[in-house]
Design a protein that fits this description.
GO molecular function, one term: oxidoreductase activity, acting on the CH-OH group of donors, NAD or NADP as acceptor
Organism: Tractidigestivibacter scatoligenes (Olsenella scatoligenes)
Family: Belongs to the D-isomer specific 2-hydroxyacid dehydrogenase family.
Strand content: 15-25%
CATH topology of the largest domain: Rossmann fold
CATH class of the largest domain: Alpha Beta
Radius of gyration: 22 Å
Protein name: D-2-hydroxyacid dehydrogenase
CATH architecture of the largest domain: 3-Layer(aba) Sandwich
Pfam families: 2-Hacid_dh, 2-Hacid_dh_C
Helix content: 25-40%
Strand order of the largest sheet: 8-7-6-9-10-11-12
């Protein structure tokens, strides 16, 4: 392992967690930019004023420093992201060629899956309409509802989050098919319990017309940007539901609005949009049977997510010191 003199930490930690991090590299200086103390009430890392000079002095960074501040620092050996997303850090000119990148995959499954599951069920049971009725003091019957029992759920992005979502759906009687870019080399008991089948994007055209729910947890890439457009939505089963908690650029939002207005879809639940924040005058806000939350499924809104990210970062520090394979390598 190359010498590590300075570790910049942009993940909130408790005093005990900070001590555990420092114990992995006793000779290094740990620069805790994020709060150290009680983290149980932090829904996300506070905005921090971190200088370029401070970033340039780091041999290792734990957390998501703004990519523009890194400037391909030749000193930076490794960055452990707190997020699952990493695309912005792989853009040209952000990192030196030798810098290792690891991400937070595995920490966000329960939080994002539960949020998405709650949004879907609330639409299926017309809860947003009943909340509107409550505010209007109106005792109204909003009509027929749907169920996940016996439903066919197509999960695009059958990684950690998709697996957690499928487990929730399976628990109430749905049958889930997972879609991945590449089939896993080996199945696991968790996969076999959550998914009746796992396939690739090549079969998407055959799967869409059969699905009662299409739930998307895909990263942003050239292949996924704008994937959910007129043709995709037109291939979906009439009366199906769409969920997206991956990246906003997956969806052509004008096409989605038309599909909701025409009654093609029974409803859609979005935790992400393009752009973010979604402008107040964007017509998407007023689409019928649409539930939007402002990209809050993840971050630290569920405190256990932050605990998992800190544990991952600390374990990877130990591995780095010992020269072992790091967890969640996305470049290096």
């Amino acid at each position: 392992m190359p010498s590590v003199d300075n570790v910049l930490v942009k993940i909130p930690v408790t005093e005990k967690q900070a001590a555990a991090m420092m114990a992995t590299m006793p000779s290094a200086t740990f620069d805790f930019a994020a709060p150290v103390g009680d983290t149980s009430r932090l829904p996300r890392t506070p905005k921090l004023d971190i200088s370029r000079e401070r970033v340039s002095q780091a041999d290792v960074i734990l957390g998501n420093v703004a990519p523009a501040l890194i400037e391909a620092s030749p000193r930076l050996q490794w960055i452990q992201l707190g997020s699952a997303g990493y695309e912005a850090y792989l853009a040209p000119g952000v990192l030196a060629p030798s810098t290792i990148v690891t991400n937070g995959t595995g920490a966000y499954g329960p939080a994002v899956a539960e949020h998405s599951f709650a949004m879907l069920l609330s639409l299926m049971k017309r809860l947003p309409a009943y909340r509107d009725d409550q505010r209007a003091h109106a005792w109204s019957d909003e009509g027929m509802v749907s169920t996940l029992a016996g439903a066919r759920v197509l999960v695009l992005g059958a990684g950690d989050i998709g697996l957690c979502f499928a487990r929730l759906c399976t628990a109430v009687g749905a049958s889930c098919v997972g879609v991945r870019r590449h089939l896993p080399s080996m199945s696991t008991p968790e996969y076999e319990q959550a998914f009746s089948r796992v396939t690739t994007m090549d079969e998407l055209v055959h799967m869409l017309p059969k699905a009662d729910v299409v739930a998307c947890f895909l990263p942003s890439s050239a292949e996924t940007q704008g994937l959910v457009a007129d043709a995709f939505l037109g291939s979906m089963k009439t009366g199906a539901y769409l969920v997206n908690a991956g990246r906003g650029d997956l969806i052509d939002q004008d096409a989605l609005r038309r599909a909701l207005e025409d009654g093609k879809l029974a409803g859609a639940a979005l935790d992400v949009a393009t752009p973010e924040p979604l402008p107040a005058d964007d017509p998407l806000w007023d689409a019928p049977n649409l539930l939007i939350t402002p990209h809050v499924a993840g971050f630290w809104h569920l405190h256990a997510t932050l605990e998992r990210v800190v544990a991952l970062a600390t374990e990877n520090l130990r591995r780095y010191v010992r020269g072992e394979q790091l967890k969640n390598i996305v470049r290096g």
